[in-house]
Amino acid sequence: MKKSQSHLIQRHKTWYARLSIPKDVKSKLGHKREFIKTLKTTDLDVAIIRSKSILADWQNLINMARGNASAIESTAIKLHLDDSDASERINTDTGMSDKDYYAEEIAESLDDNDLKVFYDHLNGRIGTPFTYFANDFIEYNYKNPKTAKDALSTLKMFSYICPTLEEVKKSKVLKWLESETRAKKTVSKAKSYLGKYWKYLQMKEVVSLDLEPFYNIDLPKKLKDEEPRESYTDKEIKEIIKHIKKSGDDALLCSCLIAIYTGARISEIGQLTKDDVVMENNTSCLRVNKSKTKAGIRVIPIHPNLTKLISSLLNDKSSEYLIYGIETKRDSKYRGDIISKRFSRIVRKPLNLPKSKVFHSFRNTVTTKLESAGVPENITADIIGHDKDTMTYGLYSGGTSIKQRYEAIKKISYHL
Q1: DSSP string for 197-241
Q2: 13 — alpha (psi -120 to 50), left (phi > 0) or beta?
Q3: CA neighbor of 337 nearest in space, from 145, 139, 143, 141
Q4: Hey, where are the domains in the chain?
Q5: How far apart are CA 254 and CA 309, in angstroms?
Q6: Which CATH fold would you assign to the domain 234-409?
Q7: Could you read off the pLDDT of 47-101 as tens digits, one per residue?
């Protein structure tokens, strides 16, 4: 039997959902052996669909019977915010809605302490936690793992200032900004995440459209500008490559070499697969399919100094990824994080590099090299993966040719 059918039984051609009640909660759930409910269908596919929400409700009851506070709070908040038909359908004999009956069923399984928590949240005596919708917001808005992580950290940080949505006021936002000591750019980004979250909550009709606590607020003048990232000198590039070779970390070495000849982001390099080495107009190229921006999806001609390295990486069959030796049990988008940590440990700290010089500085370096070689900005933008600000190039142009990019790429030199 398939997993999706494991909680289904058929009686007289009609399908039923069923779920065994664990021994430790039987006394709290009416001493019943199992939950069972008709799905009112003879169609198996329909039964599978209908059973999912029922099984979820039963599992929630089990969690709450075990005193799982988060499950109790979550269910109470959902019911408190629920404005569906379940809240509108009133039994004329009892004056109770479907939602009232469901809440009563849950309450019967709770002890006195959990019962108080449940009704406090249900009746709005305890506000909705500020981060209650955070995960849904992140999933809805962000695909890039680093951006998603930064946004979630910001929401959690602000929840210490305003634990509930009901507490969010412009005065508290101002208080937070006045307490900030981070760089202006960092605080501005955090304020942007919070504002976007609030707009999401307004879209979900969780908070009022009239409340705009994160808008029309200037950042404190005391905040300092972030120290800009600097390009590496040829001497520093040579020292970095030499140091990595000495460490024996081939994956980091390959990542850095690709970075200094392409200007690709660390996350883009980490996700390159062997299939991303392609021929375009008789030119070997790297195809970047996964990037943080639309402009980042591009094709970069392979520099002559990378040809031998790329060939050797393609010949290795131990991994589908172009660069092997970057192991992670998570999604491929996290491979860049591993490269970043190795670069910090193996390069930045031992060589005592300033905060302004990180892996991302290779992008600055490539941009500087191309500018110094007289490469037009639109060609550099197509290589680096930057948006073009002008109306002509940004809106109407189909992009530069592979030949133009290749001729530009060849002008990058480090004398390694």
Answers
A1: HHHHHHHTTSS-TT--TTSS-PPPTTPPPPPPP-PPPHHHHHHHH
A2: left
A3: 145
A4: 3-122, 134-203, 234-409
A5: 8
A6: hpI Integrase; Chain A (1.10.443)
A7: 888 888 788 778 767 766 665 555 666 677 667 666 555 455 666 666 677 777 7
373 residue type, one letter: A
Please enumerate in sequence order all residues whose Cβ is within 8 A of that of 388, keeping only pairs 6 or more positions apart, or say none. Answer: 295, 378, 381, 394, 397
Q: Give the residue from 328, 329, 357, 332 showing the smallest Cα distance to 343.
A: 357
Own/partner long-range contacts of 395-403 (Cβ < 8 Å, ≥24 apart): 401/281, 402/280, 402/281, 402/283, 402/285, 402/299, 402/301, 403/281, 403/283
303 within 8 A of 309, measured Cβ to Cβ: no
Q: Confirm if 333 and 267 have CB atoms less than 8 A apart.
A: yes
Read off the pLDDT of residues 116-141 as tens digits, 9 standing for 90 and up.
767 776 776 667 788 888 988 999 99
Can you count the helices (H) and strands (E) in the chain? Answer: 18, 6
- Per the DSSP assignment, residues forming a β-bridge with 371 are none
Query: Could you tell me how far CA 9 lies from the centroid of its own chain?
Result: 39
Are the C-beta atoms of residues 339 and 266 closer than 8 Å to each other? yes
Report how far residue 385's alpha carbon sits from residue 62's, in angstroms, rounded to the nearest whole number: 51
> What is the number of other CB atoms lying within 10 angstroms of the CB of residue 278?
12
d(CA 47, CA 18): 12
Does the predicted TM-score (pTM) go above 0.70?
A: no
